[in-house]
Amino acid sequence: MSRYRGPRLKKISRLGALPGLTRKVLGRKKQDPHKTKLKNKKSQYCSRLEEKQKLRFHYGLTERQLLKYVRIAGKAKGSTGQVLLQLLEMRLDNIIFRLGMASTIPGARQLVNHRHILVNGCLVDIPSYRCKPRDIITTKDEQKTRALIKNSLASSSRKKFSRKKLPEHLTLHSSQYKYTGLVKQIIARRRVGLKIQELRVVEYYSRQTCT
Questions:
Q1: What is the value of pTM for the model shown?
Q2: Which domains does the chain have, with CATH numbers?
Q3: How open is the CA angle 118-121-126, to the nearest 5 degrees?
Q4: Which domain of life is it from (predicted)?
Q5: What are φ and ψ of residue 181, in 5° steps?
Q6: Count of C-beta atoms within a 10 Å radius of residue 92
């Protein structure tokens, strides 16, 4: 299954806020009592599926990519759900998004694909690159790169739903010539940028592999 390129508001209407997919928000609508009643009667399978879809659309992953991350997390020490979120949060495209260099994860992925980003001084054009503590994320010293990121930072700061501040595992410094981000440590669970019940995602895949 390829990455989603359809209407984004349709997804957040069904799954809730997905800041990595879009910065748009839904207007307030009057609740339909019938729909609310049906929502409360969701099956466990439906609930697990929605949490899985939420994770996939927020981080912009294909089904195969997400399954691969679940398997890696399952082999690591610690809680599988927490390790899964840490793996996804430490992707380069997500780090750029959390630094505010791009307004969405697809926008961050485009910056990486178009070779605007360096990690520890080396050009990296792989959005799934896994960042590590003490990695230094910088932008190319080019006018086009600076303009793209400056516009993104200015745009997000003007909007009511912009990120309030950087998560504690990241820092960002700007100069006349480039932007520099530092990954200080592995992200803590409470700082993950998505409201998600990761255990249900793990349960979804564990039941899929058992059947």
A1: 0.83
A2: 8-88+193-210 (1.10.1050.10), 91-185 (3.10.290.10)
A3: 35
A4: Eukaryota
A5: -115, 150
A6: 24
